[in-house]
Amino acid sequence: MFPIAYHPIYKLPLPEGHRFPMLKYELLPQQLLHEGTVSPNAFFEPGLPNPEHILAVHKKEYVDALLNLTLDARAVRKIGFPLSVTLIERELRLAQGTLQGAEKALQTGIAFNVAGGTHHAYSDRGEAFCLLNDQAIGAQYLLDKKLAKKILIVDLDVHQGNGTAEIFQHNGKVFTFSMHGKSNYPFKKETSDLDIALHDHTDDAKFLEILQNTLPYLIETQKPDFIFYLSGVDILDSDKLGKLGCTLNGCKKRDEIVFSLCRKYEIPVQVSMGGGYSPDIKTIIEAHANTYRVATTFYH
Fold this sequence. Notes:
43% of the residues lie in helices and 12% in strands. It is of the alpha/beta class. It has an eight-stranded parallel beta sheet with strand order 2-1-3-8-7-4-5-6, sandwiched between helices.
């Protein structure tokens, strides 16, 4: 069984406008256990990260301001959450969950983080509910510890991974690939190594065709020895914050493409959940649960 990072602090209560999307962090593990997709011993609770691993990606001034709760009001508004000691602990454990998951994936082939995908966090600031960039931290950790030589970040959330693109813009050991909605946030995009901006209402057929034509080529040419996969389910046509037109089945087939290629090329992969904002929480849970269900067909 593949390892899954989960900590009770993931379901941190938030102000009224944010409580609904946070429900998935509590309900998703329950659903996976209830249906028998995973067993209780699959889950591990991440600890707190070594500060040096955070500072390998984020500027010290920014990290200090987070830890001391001294960010200015404008910076806090861009993040979108009121800062608190508990929120900062959540973000630290979330980042550590991805870092530990990356280590575990080297042994098991795949590892998950029930949360994560905080790809809007820049080296020197946070925005859009992202404070620390978990997959960037994990990627830099693998490089620094010489556990990987070339990393491919596959970001298939509906929003561009702008923070991830900025962090690795001058790092030839990390290739950033973001396939996202053209007219979605962020409205000023950064430049990933490869950006594919999709038109509004792009359907399953077009989305999957583009992915199938792109990802094998990237793996063949970049030859990564580790992949970070951001599997946001906000590509669904029902998503309140997305503008694409994919169905639950299309989202599931997307995961099948990614995992089948990781297995074919024997590349370890760490998976962070990313966004999902459909009006019905059942849709969000079903879409995220599908990612785990698909994984069980490739990783036993």
